[in-house]
Amino acid sequence: MTAENLRVLENVEVQMTVEVGNTEIKIRDLLRLNEGAVIELDRLAGDPLDILVNGTMIAKGEIVMVGERFGVRFTEIVDPEKRVENL
User: Fold this and answer.
1) What are 15-51's pLDDT values in tens digits?
2) 49 is in which domain, residue-wise?
């Protein structure tokens, strides 16, 4: 991708997601969930989180507090060329 092509894309908005973990459950178990229910995820506490842009992983990170809100600190970034190719 040329620098000119990249400049055209710089102002395009994308969806960034931080994935804490995932699991699979049966629909019957999903329907039985109520307030206070806890579901175990596939990650250990302290494991790095996946940071995705439009569903493509671009980095790993950790949760931080930014004032009263959650934030994410990038700890490992996917190679920039691979990030652009996957977007």
Assistant:
1) 999 999 999 999 999 999 999 999 999 999 999 999 9
2) 3-86
DSSP string computed for 32-52: T--TT-----SS-TTPPEEEE
Token digits of residue 61: 């990170």
Residues 21, 16: Cα–Cα separation, whole Å: 15
Count of domains for the chain: 1
* Rg (the chain; Cα; Å): 17
Phi, psi of 44 (to 5 degrees): -85, 150
Question: Rounded to 5 degrees, what angle do the CA atoms 41, 66, 75 make?
Answer: 60
